[in-house]
Amino acid sequence: MKIKEQYSQFIKAQAKRLGFLECGIAKADFLEEEAPRLENWLQNNYHGEMRYMENHFDKRLDPRLLVEGAKSVVSLSYNYFPKEVQKNQDYKISKYAYGQDYHHIIKAKLRELLSLINDEIGEVSGRCFVDSAPVLERAWAEKAGLGWNGKHTLLIQKQQGSFFFLAELIIDLELAYDNPFATDHCGKCRRCIDACPTEAILPNNTVDGSKCISYLTIELRDAIPSEFKDKTDNWMFGCDVCQDVCPWNRFSKPHSEPLFAPQEDLLEMTKRDWEEITQETFSKVFKKSAVKRTKYAGLQRNISFLKK
Predict the structure, then answer these.
(1) Where does the 4Fe-4S ferredoxin-type domain lie (predicted)?
(2) How big is the chain by its Cα radius of gyration, in Å?
(3) Is residue 186 annotated as involved in ligand binding?
(4) pLDDT digits (tens, 9 = 90+) for 55-64
(5) Is the dihedral of CA 86, 89, 95, 98 positive or negative?
(6) What are the DSSP E strand ranges found in 104-207?
(7) Distance of alpha carbon 125 from alpha carbon 210, whole angstroms
(8) How does DSSP assign 63-102, residue by residue?
(9) Whole-model pTM?
């Protein structure tokens, strides 16, 4: 067995041991096909007020600008599909935010993986990325053979659906590379397009981020535009509609990550509990949660917007 294949198999085996669903590897190179797509997306102002998306255009397309001498992009997925959902559906939170903030949990696992690589192979330089840097994670996951981008632009895996996080390890080690995932298994299905309450999912695998409920309830700092009144489907933080209706998510299996278990009392909170939530309760329920990103004032804004 060639040494590059040995290294790749070692990395994939350790990733599985650390709890990752899948691990694939692509050559660190310029994302030529994605360049015009990203440029058009920005020119159409589909990023809304997410001005940070305009920054580091070159770095988003070339991982070698993020890690000097980068040779490989290791793409990984991590399941977050919960066993249970909120009993009250008047004020809903996206499933990914039920437990502790995934950024910290997954990044710690990536650092451990990089440490294991160094222990086994020798000095390997690299950086860990979890949805917080200029990395086109879905493009790299597709190139690494993990799945395909659905019409809602989220990555889908045939055996897992789409309720998982993506993460990357960009390293200066040459490895054996996986074949890109070449087949789109969405076919003529358009359930996500038809179900989106704000009509944010456009043709040609494009999402107008400025209309996405996740953007409106998390990223947008100003008041939610009145045009979306009665169109947010009771989501107060994030949105799962396009994933909930996707036929491939019938294969989703509950995660086994204890740190993703719902925060105490979260699933039991009633409509009244949400409408009367205090700063103290917010701090308790969302102590280590990604929901803290929107802050207490932001969640209150979203709740007020949903009130009938």
Answers:
(1) 177-206
(2) 20
(3) yes
(4) 999 999 999 9
(5) negative
(6) 126-129, 148-149, 155-156, 164-171, 201-202, 206-207
(7) 37
(8) GGGTSTT--EEEEEEEE---S---S--SSEE-GGGSSS-H
(9) 0.96
Query: Is there a contact between 212 and 239 (Cβ–Cβ < 8 Å)?
Result: yes
Distance CA 238, CA 216 (A): 8
Task: Give me the amino acid identity at 100.
Answer: Q
* Element at 60 (helix H, strand E): helix 57-61
**Residue 23 labeled ligand binder:** no
Tens digits of pLDDT across the chain (308 residues): 699 999 999 999 999 999 999 999 999 999 999 999 999 999 999 999 999 999 999 999 999 999 999 999 999 999 999 999 999 999 999 999 999 999 999 999 999 999 999 999 999 999 999 998 899 999 999 999 999 999 999 999 999 999 999 999 999 999 999 999 989 999 999 999 999 999 999 988 999 999 999 999 999 999 999 999 999 999 999 999 999 999 999 999 999 999 999 988 899 999 999 999 999 999 999 999 999 999 999 999 999 999 96
Residue 265 assigned to a binding site: no
DSSP string, 178-192: PPP----TTTT--HH
Structure tokens at 51: 């001005």
Q: 230 a known binding residue?
A: no
Domain ranges of the chain: 3-82+96-171
CA distances from 86 to 4, 92, 165, 183, 276 (A): 46, 7, 20, 35, 17
The rounded distance, in Å, linking the Cα atoms of 154 and 176 is: 26
* Strand, coil or helix: 300: helix
Catalytic annotation, residues = 131
Distance CA 256, CA 278 (A): 31
